[in-house]
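Page 47, continued from p. 46.
Same chain as before, 224 aa.
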Amino acid sequence: MLGSMIRFPLLLAPALLLAACTPRQTVTAAPISGQTAVSSVSFYPKETGLNWTYLPEGESGGPLYTLKALGPTLFGSAQVSAFELTGRGAQQTWYRQIDSSGQKLLGFRKPGLTVTLTPPWNEWPASNDWKVGLTWTGTTTARLRSDDARVDQSGSVTYLYNVLEQRQVTVRDQAFKVWVVNRQVTDTLGGVFPASETIWFAPFVGDVRTAEALLLSSRNFKSN
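Result:
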């Protein structure tokens, strides 16, 4: 599930491109208010008010990155769930559709820059489909648009996921049973997406190790 200070999933690499983007207008609606009890979460956690904190792999302390589930909102005309990551100067919001068919990414936003993915990027499969050796792939068109219209470009992105194993891991003295997933990405945008990443996903918890090599530090809810 996961700025300019570190590599975020689907985050553009060229720093100059991002720096040139000056916020001018809001392109998505504000998240709808409301809270869901964080003691009960979905297989792919999305309930409003859920909160995770992370530290970079190899670090034992320092400022935390915070991921928040902002709740339901609109991305264009699509109903989505919004997730915002902040910390160490980074800020990025992802817009996802999460249901019985799995988890799909429709796009994301940084200050001054919006990226839309058509069709949506298939991040995770249906909850009952998880197994070692499972693979899935897809191609989407990524459109990059800045609020000041200085950036407006598109390119194709092809992704491939491979579920390598399910195993027990201990992170920050917490034990998790995770699916270990390798994700490979190629694109026609000059290699702006990380080419290969490893993710640890735990059902009813979320990403224990994110694609940016962030390790889960804490969360404000318990697993079902």
